[in-house]
Amino acid sequence: MGLLDGKVVVVTGGGHGIGRAYCLGIAREGGTAVVADIDESAALGVARAIQDSGGKALGTRVDVANFASCQEMAKKTLGAFGQIDGLINNAAIFMSVPAEKGTWQEITEEAWDRIMAVNVKGLWLCSRAVVPAMQQRKQGSVVNISSNMAFNGGLTMMHYVVSKAAVVGFSRVLARELGGDNIRVNTLAPGATMSDEKVTDAIVKHYDRTASTRILKRVEQPEDLVGTALYLLSDLSAFVTGQTILVNGGAVLH
Q1: For helices 121-137 and 109-119, angle between their N-to-C axes, nearest 10 degrees
Q2: Strand 183-190 versus strand 244-247 pairing type
Q3: pLDDT tens-digit profile of 133-143?
Q4: Do the Cβ atoms of 104 and 165 come closer than 8 Å?
Q5: 160 an active-site residue?
Q6: Bridge partners of residue 141, in order along the sequence
Q7: pLDDT at site 234
Q8: What are the structural domains, with CATH classification, of the chain?
Q9: Taking each helix axis from N to C terminus, what angle separates 158-178 and 121-137, rounded to the nearest 10 degrees?
Q10: 207-241 pLDDT, tens digit each
Q11: Residue tagged active-site, from 22, 160, 207, 231
């Protein structure tokens, strides 16, 4: 028996990095992973890898900043499986789709708007498209992905930090609005995670420096987030909603 037997979970940004790890973890625990990504080939590749190893998955393209695209993703999922039990709002501009950096005065208005469209509005649009299927069955779990940086005020990325702080507020309101439907909404905030697909010496040094600031002094890996995500999606957390869990090896205490 797996933690997610019989559950269908949509993961946005599931084609790369931490999102890919969530999808693999969902499948390992008996769930069906709907791998949704703006990079369709990556989404299909992750779904194929899951299927090849005996798991259940569907790959699909989604642009979370476009409501019609989110609706199409939900429609495709329901057409294939007839239900949706979980949603991980993971897609964001930061790593796989790089974010522009600069001081708060240097960030361009275009970069600010682009970050907000994906990292904040995208959560809202995806939830609007997917949650009605959960409401029909009076059950479900939404996991919204924030960031350690929302709690320590990371420099040179104010637009990103603000977007990830907004995730916490979004989750709290949505949790209250969906409580009557027995749908839980929580926030998972990773620390700096080695999710880069092209690892250079400079990247390794950066993560080693970050590791030195933690209570648990090692580099955070995508798999470090999976257990908490599975817990929040599963019935183990049936009475947990409106909460924020930081998974960062003790870099920030909350």
Answers
A1: 10
A2: parallel
A3: 999 999 999 99
A4: no
A5: yes
A6: 86, 184
A7: 98
A8: 8-244 (3.40.50.720)
A9: 20
A10: 888 888 899 999 999 999 999 999 999 999 999 99
A11: 160
